[in-house]
Every structure is written in C-alpha cells, then in structure tokens.
Amino acid sequence: MLDDTDRRILRHYQHAPHLGPAELADLAGVTPATCARRLDRMQAAGVIRANRAVIDWRALGYEVEVSLRITLDKTQVRAFDEFLEAARNVPEVIEIQTFLGRVDLRLSVIARDMPHYQDLYRRAILTLPHIADIEALMHVARIKSDEVLPV
Amino acid sequence: MIELDTTDRLILRALTEDATRSASAIGRRLGLSQPAAWRRIRKLHDSGVIKAQRLDLDHEKLGFGVTVFLGVKLATKGRVSLDDFERAVSAIPEVQTVEHILGLYDYRLRVVARDISDFERVLRRRIMTLPGVGNVEANVLLSEERRPGPIG
C-alpha cells in the first residue's frame, strides 16, 4: 500500500524527524503539497503513529540505567498480568518488554546514582510479584539509537 | 543537571506524545501564553533534556513482523577492537540499536526483520560474520511498552 514516493519520504523523515513538510519535501524531491498529502495519508493509515520527543534522562540527573532480565514463576496463571500491572506503577521503569526466549521480560530502570538504584531495587523491584530470577545488565554506552526502519 | 517545575514536566510529557505540537497549542492546553510556552519548550531543547525526535512507526504495517534482541558476547577480546565491531554492527540496516553493556553480554542489539526466515538471513549473513563475534543469545520481542518515566 506504500509506493516508492512514500518510502522515500519515510526514509528521509526517519533520519530527520524535526523537519517540517516543506524541508522534508525538498530532501525527498517532491513538492511540499505532495509531501504534506503523503504524510497525512500515512498518519491516517496508522503507518506513522507519532513523532515523539526523546528525553535524555542524564540531563535530568538520572545517571544510571540498568536492564533487568526477569524470569517469572509460570506456575502462577496470572504471573504475567500481575507482574506487568505492578511494574507499570514504578515510575523509574521506562520500558517493559516481553519475550519468547531465555528470559520472559526485560525492564529498563533509571536511577539518579548507585545508592538510589540500590534503594529502588530493594524497595520497588524485588517486591514485584512472581519473580523467579533476575539478571542485571548495566548500560555503558549507546552506540546506535536512531531506531530507523530500513523501509 | 536541570530542575523542572510542574509546568515544564507537563510540556515535556506533551512533547513525548507529539513533538510536532506548536507552542501555541501547548500553551492553550496548559493555560500559558504562546511566548511563555515557546520559552519553556526552547529551554527543554537548549538544556539537552529533549535530545532528539523519533518517528513512532507501525512496524507490522511496514512489513517488519519480527523484532529480536540479541545478546552478543565478543569471542576474541584484545585481538579485535571494540571500535571495529561497533562500526561494523552499526552499519547493518536491520540493526536498530546497539548498546554496550556490562554483565552477561558485551552488546545488546535490536534487530528488525520481515519474518523469521528473513531474521535467519540477517543473523547468518550479517551478524555471525561480524569481526570478533562469539556467543549470541536471541530473545524474540512479543510486546513492548514505553513508559513516561519519572516526570510525573
């Protein structure tokens, strides 16, 4: 349902989401009217869901980011639902992913520093329901983070 | 580090939902004048709190049905430079994110593919041939939620 023009616009838009339709049209080699119409159509079709601002948590004083890989006690029928519901109530959890694989879930947790992380881990994470096992991975650096789809 | 007041937080939250909102639209929502809203938005950008914008695309509708997280352990540390690995892996179009981590693995990659057989192609031809790559663990993404985080 997308043609080459749509894809070309999307490719450029993904790399420069801050551009307005006129500048984007210039890059993609179409008229501003075409560009605006195509963007509207892709938004209406739900292909483009949103254009979101990305927060740098470090700039807000959150220096630590930890990935927690969690295995749940699956003998409990409602383990996933109850765990997810409780994890959503921890504000420092910025991402929740569920997997098919060696681990069931991953939480991305941010903290101001290690003592704050330690406190969060004991008070808010270890108290989440149905955890069978947790592995912690510490973020050192993001090498690539644009999340561009190769359309 | 910058301290945000409640109004800043509300603006930040609104922009993480839709960064294309104008200062006047945000001002109207929060009962601020257009110039006051504009100044606060400007401050969020200038202080680096908003580091970028990102398009939120429907992967399925664009034909990418599979997302896999790979934990990669380097086999020959010392002989292969991390820079070489990072440069090579970042150049693969299907690799959306590359994170250097401490723990069980050295790197975590987010990989998109059209389907499982397309993923197999990416894994065999592109990932397993990277310089220094050792153990690889795969977890197929079933669901994902991005939470607003501690901004109220």
Which key terms come to mind for this protein?
A: 151 residues; alpha+beta; 5 strands; 36% helix; 30% strand; B: alpha+beta; four-stranded antiparallel beta sheet; elongated
How would you describe this protein?
- The complex is a heterodimer of chains A (151) and B (152).
- Helix content of chain A is 36%, strand content 30%.
- By secondary structure, chain A is of the alpha+beta class.
- The radius of gyration of chain A is 20 Å and the shape is elongated.
- Chain A starts with a helix and ends in a 7-residue tail after the last strand.
- The model of chain A has no long low-confidence stretch (mean pLDDT 94).
- With 152 residues, chain B is α+β, with helices and mostly antiparallel strands.
- A 4-stranded antiparallel β-sheet of chain B has the order 3-4-2-5.
- In chain B, α2 crosses α3.
- The interface between A and B is large, with 57 and 63 residues.
SSE topology sketch:
The complex is a heterodimer of chains A (151) and B (152).
Chain A: H1 4-15, H2 21-28, H3 32-44, E1 48-55, E2 64-72, H4 79-87, E3 93-100, E4 105-111, H5 114-125, E5 131-144
Antiparallel strand pairs in A: 2-4, 2-5, 3-4
Helix pairs in contact in A: 1-2, 2-3
Chain B: H1 6-17, H2 23-30, H3 34-46, E1 50-57, E2 66-74, H4 82-90, E3 95-102, E4 107-113, H5 116-127, E5 133-146
Antiparallel strand pairs in B: 2-4, 2-5, 3-4
Helix pairs in contact in B: 2-3
